[in-house]
Automatic annotation (TrEMBL):
Biased composition (Low complexity): 113-127
Transmembrane segments: 12-34, 46-67
Keyword DNA-binding: no
Record's keyword annotation contains NADP: no
Gene3D superfamilies: Rhodopsin 7-helix transmembrane proteins (1.20.1070.10)
Keywords of this entry: Membrane, Transmembrane, Transmembrane helix
Renumbered residue ranges of the record's region Disordered: 105-127
Protein name: G protein-coupled receptor
Lineage: Eukaryota, Metazoa, Ecdysozoa, Nematoda, Chromadorea
């Protein structure tokens, strides 16, 4: 029953955001069909309202995920779990790669340049 309440709340929020984002579009569309000539008397308003309608549509779409996350606890837990596992696996891969790099650097440090030279200077055999 709790999940039904969450789903109902989610649906109400999604519908309200959709209606609020499209109210200006409905007004402008009705105005276009009723009296296009009077709408063209205000070209600045018309261009501005068309741009705002597009922007409001994008905002409404971007609000869907936060609405789902706030209203549905099960989905929120699953997404948190997913991102937690994703971050942990990336950290483990990063740690593994740095350990491999550090091990290679330690091996390279063991073979320093003084170890590659002979212990005594080269003698000239022409003497």
């Amino acid at each position: 029953q709790n999940r039904v309440k969450e789903a109902t709340r989610t649906l109400i929020f999604i519908v309200c955001v959709y209606l609020m984002s499209n109210i200006l579009n409905v007004v402008v569309t009705i105005w276009e069909y009723i009296d296009m000539a009077s709408l063209m008397e205000y070209p600045g308003f018309y261009l501005f309202s068309v741009d705002i309608v597009s922007l409001l549509t994008v905002v409404a779409c971007s609000l869907r995920l936060p609405i789902y996350l706030t209203c549905q606890s099960q989905l929120r837990r699953e997404i948190i779990t997913f991102f937690t596992h994703l971050i942990k696996s990336r950290q483990e891969r990063f740690m593994d790669s740095t350990m491999v790099t550090n091990t290679k650097m330690e091996k390279d440090d063991d073979l320093s340049s003084s170890d590659l030279l002979p212990p005594y200077p080269l003698l000239n055999n022409d003497d």
